[in-house]
Specification:
Blueprint lengths: L2 E4 L2 E4 L3 E6 L6 H11 L20 H6 L6 E7 L2 E7 L8 H6 L5 E6 L6 H13 L4 E5 L9 H9 L6 E3 L1 E6 L2 E7 L4 E6 L2 E6 L6 H16 L3 H8 L6 H13 L4 E5 L8 H11 L3 H8 L8 E10 L3 E10 L2 E2 L3 E3 L5 E3 L3 E5 L2 E5 L1 E2 L4 E5 L9 E3 L19 E7 L5 H14 L4 E5 L4 E6 L2 H15 L3 E4 L6 E4 L3 E9 L6 E11 L7 E4 L11 H12 L11 E9 L7 H18 L2 E15 L3 H10 L3 E7 L6 E9 L6 H8 L5 E12 L1 H11 L7
Parallel strand pairs: 3-5, 3-6, 6-7, 7-13, 8-13, 31-32
Antiparallel strand pairs: 1-2, 4-5, 9-10, 10-11, 11-12, 14-15, 14-23, 15-22, 16-21, 17-18, 19-20, 19-22, 24-26, 24-27, 25-26, 28-33, 29-30, 30-32, 33-35, 33-36, 34-35
Helix pairs in contact: 6-7, 11-12, 13-14
Length: 690
C-alpha cells in the first residue's frame, strides 16, 4: 500500500468514509455542514433552519426540513481525504444508514442529553454495533445542555453495549458550556463562534474534575493494556504517545466509543473531533479485514445508494473496497451481468464533479450501471463474478396507501417511475393487488410514503391520488340450505337447458370451497359436473353482502337435462343461479381479516402501546422482554386489519419515534352489529345479519 507523508508522520493513502448517524433532530446535518466548512469544502457553513445547507438540498428535504436521503460530502483535512455521509435520523428513512454502515471505516453517533431520545438512540447504536463499525459519540448541543455530564453519560451508556469513554469535559460558566478540557492532551479550549477553539490555561476550579475524569479514562484503557495498568498502579504518568496509541487501538477494536462534546451549529468542538478522526479512525485496509476481504485481487466496490437523475441517467454511489476503477471500465456484479462505467463523479450535496479514476477508499458515483442494485459488490474481473455481499434486508412495511392514477394510460408511467424509486430505496414496496383491484405503495411510515409520492410528481410528472387501502373482507354462511337452479331459454334452433339441485353448507374457517356430487341415475351427465362446479364458483365472486364468499361446500344431488338443449354453459348458468339463491338464504355473515401482530416498544411506553391495541379491537395474547434489548418489551396481539392503518403513526408518537411492529395474516373472524352494517352499506351489499 502506498504511503503519503503528512505533518511529519507516515499515512496510508486512501480516503476514509465516515458515517454520521443519530436520532432525528440530533444535529447530524448541522455537524455535516460544519465539517464541510471547517475543512474548506464550502465557503461558509450552511444551516438547515434557513435552507442554506449543502445537505438536505432535495426539494423534499427542504419542504419538510429533514433529511430524507443520505447526503455525501468529500473533504481534505491536513493532507487526508474524508467522505462524510450524513444519514437520515428518522426511523422511516433508517434503511439509508443500514446501506452505508457496512462499508464505513467509522461512524460518528450524534446524540444529545435528552432522555426522550434514548430509545431512538438505542436503535442507532444497535445498527452501528451490529455492523461492527468503530464509532465515536459526539454529544451535541452542549451549549444548551442541562445537568451533570457524568449523569448524562451514564444515561447514554444505558442504551450502548459499547463502553462510552469520556474524552472531554465541558468548562462551565454560569451554567453555560463555554469550552472543554481534552483529557488526553490535558489542555483546555474556549469555544469561538464558527472557528476553531482557542487554547487556554485549565481553569483552577476545573483542575480537580479534570484529574478525576482523566484517571477514569485511563482506567478504562488499562483494561486492555497491562503496561498502562501497571503504570497507574505505581503512580507513573504514562507517556502521551502511549495514551493516544491505546485510544486508537481500543476504538478501532470496538472496545470503547470515545465521547466528545460540542455544539455543531456554532462549530464548537468540531476541530478536536476532526483531529480524533485523523489519528484514530480506521482506514480502508482495516475495513477490508473487518469484511473478510483480502488486500489483493480484482478491484471491488460496494454500492451504497442509487440515484436516478433526470438527464444523467442512473448514478450508483459506491465505496471502492480494493483496487481502482476507471471511467469506461467494464464491471460485473454478483449476478454475473456486465455493465460499463459511464462517468465517475465525486459528490458534495447535490453537486457532482467528474473524476477520471476511483481509487481504493474513494466513495464516488458510478454512472449508468443499470444492473447494479444497492448493496451489490462490483468487480473489475469480468471473467468471473463479484463476491456476494451480506444481504441488507429492508424492514417489513408498516404503512400503505392505495394509488389511483387520474388517467389509465398513466399506469405504465407510474409503474416505471415506482420501479426507479424502489431501486433507490429498497424499503419501499409496490404491490398490485389483483383481488382488490388496487395498486398499493408500502413503506416505513406516513412521511416515507408522502416523500415518495412527492418524488413521483416532481421527478417523473406522475401525479396520483392516494387513499387508505381496501380491506380484504370476505363473507360466509351460517347454515345449510337446499336449492334448485334452473336455466331454460328457447330462442329458435337449439335452446338452453340446465337444471341442478344443490345442497350448500358452511365449512370450517380456512377450509375454502369444496364441490362434491351425489347424483344417482345419470340425471345430470358426468360431462357437466365441472360446469356445475364452475357455476358455483362464479357465484362466490360476490356474495349477498357484496364480498367474495369463502368456506362453503356445494353438493350436486339432483337435476335434469335435455338431450339437445343442455350444454356446459347452460349447466354453469343454472348452478350459478342456484348458488346465488342458496347464499342469500343461508344466513350470510361478514368476515374480516385479523392479523397476528408483534409490537416492539421501550418498556416505559408499554402501557401506552397496550392502550393502542385495546383501542383497535385488539386481543392481547401476551408480553415478553425483547430478546437482547435491555429496556424493551414485545406485545403479541391479534388486531383486525381494518384497525392497522394508522397504528404505526400513533405507536411512534407514543414511543418517541422508536416503536415498531410486524404483522402477518392470521385468520378471518366474524363481524356483526353496527360495524358489519356500516361495512356492507359502504360496499353496496345487502344488510348484514345482526
Amino acid at each position: 500500500m502506498s504511503e503519503t507523508r503528512t505533518s511529519g508522520e507516515a499515512r496510508a493513502a486512501g480516503a476514509r468514509l465516515i458515517a454520521l448517524v443519530g436520532p432525528f433532530q440530533s444535529g447530524k446535518t448541522s455537524l455535516f455542514e460544519c465539517l464541510l466548512a471547517r475543512c474548506g469544502a464550502v465557503a461558509r457553513q450552511g444551516f438547515v433552519r434557513d435552507g442554506t445547507s449543502v445537505g438536505d438540498s432535495s426539494p423534499e428535504a427542504r419542504a419538510h426540513a429533514m433529511s430524507v436521503e443520505s447526503n455525501v460530502g468529500g473533504v481534505d483535512y491536513l493532507g487526508d481525504r474524508y467522505v462524510f455521509v450524513d444519514c437520515p435520523g428518522s426511523v422511516e428513512f433508517a434503511h439509508e444508514q443500514r446501506q452505508v454502515l457496512p462499508v464505513a471505516d467509522a461512524a460518528i453517533v450524534v446524540a444529545e442529553a435528552d432522555p426522550r431520545k434514548l430509545p431512538a438512540l438505542q436503535l442507532v447504536l444497535r445498527a452501528v454495533e451490529d455492523a461492527g463499525v468503530p464509532h465515536f459519540l459526539f454529544l451535541n448541543k452542549i451549549d444548551v445542555a442541562q445537568g451533570n455530564l457524568r449523569d448524562t453519560l451514564s444515561l447514554l451508556q444505558s442504551v450502548s453495549r459499547t463502553p462510552l469513554l469520556l474524552r472531554q469535559i465541558p468548562i462551565w460558566n454560569n451554567g453555560i458550556a463555554v469550552g472543554f478540557i481534552d483529557l488526553a492532551l490535558e489542555r483546555a479550549y474556549v469555544y469561538r463562534e464558527h472557528a476553531p477553539s482557542e487554547v487556554v490555561e485549565i481553569p483552577p476550579g476545573e483542575a480537580v474534575l479534570e484529574k478525576e475524569a482523566r484517571y477514569s479514562m485511563l482506567e478504562r484503557l488499562a483494561d486492555y493494556d497491562d503496561a498502562l495498568m501497571e503504570e497507574l498502579l505505581t503512580d507513573i504518568e504514562p507517556p502521551r504517545d502511549q495514551i493516544f496509541d491505546d485510544l486508537a487501538k481500543e476504538m478501532r477494536g470496538g472496545h470503547v466509543a470515545p465521547a466528545f462534546v460540542g455544539a455543531a451549529e456554532r462549530g464548537a468542538g468540531v476541530s478536536r473531533l476532526l483531529k480524533a478522526l485523523r489519528h484514530e479512525a480506521p482506514r480502508i485496509g482495516e475495513t477490508r479485514a473487518r469484511r473478510g476481504l483480502a488486500d489483493n485481487g480484482p478491484a471491488l466496490a460496494q454500492v451504497i445508494r442509487a440515484v436516478h437523475t433526470p438527464h444523467g441517467g442512473k448514478l450508483s454511489l459506491a465505496r471502492v473496497l480494493r483496487g481502482s476503477f476507471n471511467d469506461g471500465q467494464a464491471v460485473v456484479g454478483a449476478a454475473g451481468v456486465e455493465d460499463k462505467i459511464s462517468g465517475l463523479f465525486s459528490l458534495i450535496g447535490g453537486a457532482a464533479t467528474r473524476q477520471a479514476k476511483a481509487e481504493s477508499g474513494d466513495t464516488l458515483a458510478f454512472g449508468r450501471l443499470e444492473h447494479a442494485a444497492v448493496g451489490d459488490i462490483l468487480s473489475a474481473d469480468t471473467h468471473g463474478t463479484a463476491p456476494a455481499a451480506a444481504k441488507i434486508e429492508a424492514p417489513a412495511p408498516v404503512y400503505a396507501l392505495a394509488l389511483a392514477v387520474k388517467d389509465r394510460k398513466d399506469e405504465m408511467r407510474l409503474t416505471a417511475a415506482l420501479a426507479k424509486l424502489i431501486d433507490e430505496d429498497p424499503s419501499l414496496a409496490f404491490v398490485h393487488d389483483q383481488q382488490l383491484g388496487e395498486m398499493k405503495l408500502l413503506g416505513q411510515g406516513e412521511m416515507h410514503i408522502r416523500v415518495a409520492l412527492e418524488r413521483l410528481a416532481s421527478r417523473y410528472g406522475v401525479t396520483v391520488g392516494a387513499h387508505p387501502p381496501a380491506i380484504g373482507y370476505r363473507e360466509t354462511i351460517r347454515r345449510a340450505v337446499s336449492v334448485r337452479g334452473r336455466h331454460k331459454k328457447q330462442s329458435g334452433g337449439h335452446g338452453q337447458f340446465g337444471d341442478v339441485a344443490l345442497e350448500v353448507a358452511p365449512r370450517g374457517r380456512g377450509e375454502g370451497f369444496a364441490f362434491l356430487e351425489r347424483v344417482h341415475g345419470g340425471v345430470v351427465p358426468k360431462q357437466y359436473y365441472s360446469s356445475v362446479e364452475a357455476g358455483c364458483r362464479d357465484a362466490l365472486a360476490r356474495g349477498p353482502l357484496g364480498f367474495p364468499v369463502v368456506d362453503v361446500e356445494a353438493v350436486l344431488v339432483d337435476g335434469s337435462y335435455h338431450s339437445v338443449d343442455s350444454s356446459d354453459m347452460a349447466f354453469r348458468t343454472a348452478a350459478r343461479i342456484g348458488m346465488i339463491e342458496a347464499l342469500g338464504k343461508a344466513e350470510p355473515v361478514l368476515l374480516e381479516p385479523v392479523l397476528s401482530v408483534v409490537i416492539r416498544t421501550p418498556s416505559e411506553a408499554m402501557s401506552r402501546a397496550t392502550s393502542l391495541v385495546s383501542a383497535r379491537r385488539g386481543q392481547i395474547l401476551g408480553f415478553r422482554p425483547r430478546a437482547g434489548w435491555d429496556g424493551w418489551d414485545e406485545i403479541e396481539a391479534l388486531i383486525p386489519e381494518a384497525e392497522i392503518g394508522a397504528l404505526i403513526i400513533e405507536l411512534r408518537s407514543a414511543t418517541s419515534g422508536a416503536g415498531s411492529f410486524e404483522a402477518a395474516f392470521d385468520h378471518l373472524a366474524e363481524v356483526v352489529g353496527r360495524q358489519a352494517r356500516e361495512v356492507v352499506a359502504a360496499r353496496g351489499g345487502a344488510t348484514a345479519e345482526r
